[in-house]
């Protein structure tokens, strides 16, 4: 039986699975030996799209909340291709766009999840002009405000090479985690991404390798495999068949 389409990631997260140990390890490594200031806001970005940023961001956030008891918030800052709402199967509601454009109260835009201590701020409604709406300074102010309520804020960002958003956000967060799709992203491409981040304040705190084929269950198919980084939300998602035998598993 193929996995149920449009399931929430929470249906797949298996607290006993080996990948959860990897996410615990990643969290541990993020804080281990860290003496230079607090680490509350962490941006996840990558060189290109579809390297697994949103997936890793979500699994990392669930692990932080469930296994470490950290009050955790995910912010979807990718106004062009938001996915956190789909990953958590959240009903449409105001999000980052409405905060930036309409001055919406952040506390009203945040959604709770069925995981205790895990909240989500989606990108919000359809954004026609993401580059005009994206305001790194306003987002920096928002992060500072929300830090008061959370132990960890993970920012799911756009990729570095196609757009400048994550580069601009890098100086507004405490650290940046670079996601690399192992065996797929070329060395030169990763190098260029690091170059883009390096001159920023508080640049890369680590690299998370994502092995797309073997490490995590396929839980959702966004039809994300495209060559250009552009808004495709008006198009119907192209479905890709996957030879997947995994079944949804409830959090135990
Ligand atoms: N380790 C993995 N194993 C299986 N599928 C994965 C893995 N990481 C990501 N995917 C799938 O790849 C696609 C792109 O991942 P996503 O996290 O949305 O990438 P990004 O946010 O970098 O664009 C999604 O359909 C996701 O379910
Ligand atoms: Mg993404």
Structure description:
- The protein has 9 helices and 7 strands.
- The protein has 252 residues and is of the alpha/beta class.
- It has a domain at 40-210: P-loop containing nucleotide triphosphate hydrolases (Rossmann fold).
- It has a 7-stranded mixed β-sheet with strand order 3-4-2-5-1-6-7.
- Helix 9 (187-197) links the parallel strand 6 (175-181) and strand 7.
- The radius of gyration is 17 Å and the shape is globular.
- The model is unreliable at 219-252 (pLDDT under 50).
- The protein binds adenosine-5'-diphosphate (ADP) and magnesium ion.
- Magnesium ion binds at residues 53-54, 78, 83, 156.
Features:
252 residues, Rossmann fold, seven-stranded mixed β-sheet, 9 helices, 30% helix, binds adenosine-5'-diphosphate, binds magnesium ion
What is the fold-level CATH name, i.e. the topology of the domain at 40-210?
A: Rossmann fold
Number of strands: 7
**SSE arrangement, N to C:** HEHEHHHEEHHEHEHE
Shape: globular
Structural class: alpha/beta
CATH class of the domain at 40-210: Alpha Beta
**Radius of gyration over all CA atoms, rounded:** 17 Å
What spatial order of strands do you see in the largest sheet?
3-4-2-5-1-6-7
The CATH superfamily of the domain at 40-210 is known as: P-loop containing nucleotide triphosphate hydrolases
Uncertain stretches of 5 or more adjacent residues = 219-252
Overall pLDDT: 83
Instruction: Identify every distinct bound molecule in the structure, by name, code or SMILES.
Output: adenosine-5'-diphosphate, magnesium ion
């Amino acid at each position: 039986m193929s996995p149920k389409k449009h399931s929430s990631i929470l249906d797949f997260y298996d607290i006993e699975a080996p990948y959860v140990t990897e996410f615990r390890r990643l969290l541990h490594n993020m804080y281990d030996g860290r003496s230079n200031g607090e680490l509350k806001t962490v941006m996840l970005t990558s060189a290109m799209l579809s390297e697994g940023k949103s997936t890793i961001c979500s699994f990392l956030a669930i692990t932080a909340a469930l296994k470490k008891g950290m009050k955790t918030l995910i912010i979807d800052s990718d106004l062009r291709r938001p996915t956190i709402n789909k990953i958590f199967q959240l009903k449409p509601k105001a999000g980052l766009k409405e905060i930036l454009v309409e001055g919406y109260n952040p506390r009203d835009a945040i959604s709770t999840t069925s995981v205790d201590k895990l909240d989500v701020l989606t990108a919000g409604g359809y954004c026609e002009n993401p580059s005009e709406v994206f305001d790194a300074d306003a987002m920096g102010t928002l992060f500072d405000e929300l830090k008061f309520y959370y132990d960890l804020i993970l920012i799911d960002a756009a990729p570095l090479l196609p757009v400048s958003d994550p580069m601009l956000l890098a100086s507004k967060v405490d650290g940046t985690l670079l996601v690399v799709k192992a065996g797929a992203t070329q060395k030169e491409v990763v190098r260029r991404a690091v170059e883009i981040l390096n001159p920023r304040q508080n640049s890369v705190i680590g690299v998370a390798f994502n092995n797309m084929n073997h490490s995590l269950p396929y839980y959702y198919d966004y039809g994300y495999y495209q060559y250009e980084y552009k808004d495709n939300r008006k198009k119907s998602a192209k479905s890709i068949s996957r030879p997947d035998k995994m079944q949804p598993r409830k959090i135990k």
